[in-house]
Design goal:
Oligomer: single chain
Structural class: alpha+beta
CATH architecture of the largest domain: Orthogonal Bundle
Shape: elongated
Largest sheet: 8 strands, mixed
Number of domains: 2
Radius of gyration: 25 Å
CATH topology of the largest domain: Endonuclease III, domain 1
CATH class of the largest domain: Mainly Alpha
Distance between the termini: 64 Å
Number of strands: 8
Length: about 350
DNA sequence: GAACCGTGGAT
DNA sequence: TATCCAAGGTT
């Protein structure tokens, strides 16, 4: 039977070919959960250093729950998708305060926690608690779509049901955690998106895509993202040895991270700048734009950002009044170092102002 | 159900 | 350079 061959060949391959990864050494609910959240939409190579730092800084879920949110966000800086960090902290507090520091032990129970969806719940439930639920992620879609020749658009929500049910019939119920990790390892190292290594694949003999030569067409994914262009004019307001920054709010990218006073324009910088009330008020006090940076190009998943930074030396008198209700607060260089900032801001501080604003 | 949310590496 | 996409989740 096709399904049993898939299972046995895959499990045998995993015994000799599994990757050696830090979170596989001594699996427990906390470390498994931590690794899964970090690895959402993130490559192993990028997430691994963060996993090590988080586990060292917060050895237990209670340590993470007791940490200040600002510290957690700062430790997450550079990983992206920052709602993961907020939910990570929220989840830790729930587990610590309402569950006696003990994670739920079931697929259903895990999904009730913030930041844990179907995939992550299945991964933890199978790896830590031996529950036989398939972990449907990008690797699983690819491996299964190719092997079984499934044409369903994986971007459509109904695809999940189809792959989940198929996975449930094939999963090794004796070692569900190994099975799920085997699918992921195969997808990551052999059945790769481009140029899959079919010559060395343990599932080659029964693979539909290999037989048809359709590896490049599977899985089917129709969704195309639209990329919006934005022009960001950052006003770096300085006063003595301090710089004004503000915490970004909900409704846009980089929620809860810190940046400078922002004037967004439809086009690259022009005299629209003068329509900004804060900037206008500052200039009235005698301050002037002292310096500007080259354009920084920064690419997000749905946006292309073009940013320029203008330094303005503000006067002490009247500053509080001008900046009230803007959310802007003054920070020393040392304080800025401890704030969570977008990579764009970090790049500006490091590469352009290095040795001038921040003492390296 | 579709859009949104980051960053970096590979091709 | 442009595109894809990586152990997804939330709204």
């Amino acid at each position: 039977m096709e399904e049993s061959i898939f299972r046995s060949e895959l499990m045998e391959w995993y015994q000799t070919s599994q990757r050696s990864l830090p979170w596989r050494e001594a699996p427990n609910a906390y470390s498994c959960w931590l690794s899964e959240i970090i690895l959402q939409q993130t490559r192993v190579a990028q997430g691994a250093p963060y996993y090590a730092r988080f586990l060292e800084t917060y050895p237990t879920v209670q340590d993470l729950a007791d940490a200040p949110e600002e510290e957690v966000m700062r430790l997450w800086q550079g990983l992206g998708y920052y709602s993961r960090a907020r939910n990570l902290h929220k989840c830790a507090k729930t587990v610590s305060h309402e569950m006696n520091n003990t994670f739920p032990s079931t697929y259903a129970g895990l999904q009730k926690l913030p930041g844990i969806g179907k995939y992550t719940a299945a991964a933890i439930a199978s790896i830590v608690f031996n529950e036989a639920v398939p972990a449907v992620d990008g690797n699983m879609y690819r491996v299964f779509a190719r092997y079984f020749g499934i044409q369903t658009d994986i971007a459509s929500p109904k695809a999940f049901k189809e792959f989940f049910e198929l996975g449930a019939t094939i999963i090794d119920s004796g070692k569900p955690g190994d099975f799920n990790q085997a699918v992921m390892d195969l997808g990551a190292t052999v059945c790769t998106p481009k140029k899959p290594l079919c010559d060395t694949c343990p599932l080659a003999s029964g693979c539909h895509a290999l037989a048809k030569g359709s590896q490049g067409d599977l899985p089917v994914k129709k969704k195309k993202i639209k990329v919006r262009e934005r022009h960001l004019n950052y006003i770096v307001i300085r006063n003595g040895d301090k710089t004004f920054m503000r915490k970004r709010e909900a409704g846009d990218v980089w929620q809860d991270l810190y940046d400078f006073h922002l004037i967004e324009t439809e086009k690259p910088t022009d005299f629209d700048l003068l329509t900004d009330t804060v900037l206008e008020s500052l200039i009235k006090t005698g301050a002037s734009l002292a310096d500007s940076s080259p354009t920084f190009k920064h690419v997000l998943s749905h946006q292309r950002l073009f940013a320029r930074f203008y330094i303005i030396e503000a006067q002490g008198s009247g500053l509080d009044e001008i900046l009230q209700n803007t959310g802007l607060k003054a920070y020393t260089d040392q304080e800025i170092e401890s704030l969570a900032k977008p990579i764009l801001i970090e790049n500006y501080l490091k590469k352009y102002l290095d040795g001038r604003l921040l003492l390296a």
